[in-house]
Amino acid sequence: MSRLEGDIYVSLYVAEHDSIIEKWSGHSLTLLEIIEIKSLEEGLVTINTESLSEIISRTGHVAIYDIYFDIDKAEVKSESEPVFDEIAGLLQQNPDLKLYVVGHTDNVGELAYNMKLSQARADAVVKFLISEYGIDENQLLSYGVGPLVPVASNRTEEGRAKNRRVELVER
Which residues form the domain of 102? Predict the structure, then answer.
């Protein structure tokens, strides 16, 4: 069935049992499956201190997409505070944990400009964690790598959005 909210698929299976299994003889079985197809909702993954710790322990790094900056700016936007609460919680609970804060950009614009912007954004993240949360500066080192480590193609806006990120890398 087609509908605006997404397609629905219905499967109906009906069977009558014969005498192979005596106690089921004469009974029928009905199985109804309804599958609703919906668009994938984005932006619902919650980053918390525990998940950050688990991902870093398992992979050595975690990509953070919820740190926001205006275009061509390095000032952290207030919408980023929830993720900063979790990053700060991770660092406060693990005072021996040392991280690289790595800024990434897409490849729009000149390489030198993107390298400088990614470094400025990584610096801003470190500065924010130190000044607003009292994180020990020895736990954090900032690096900007611009567009040099993409995780997706820069040919589409979706890919460029994935490449604009901050990563926390265990050191």
Answer: 49-170
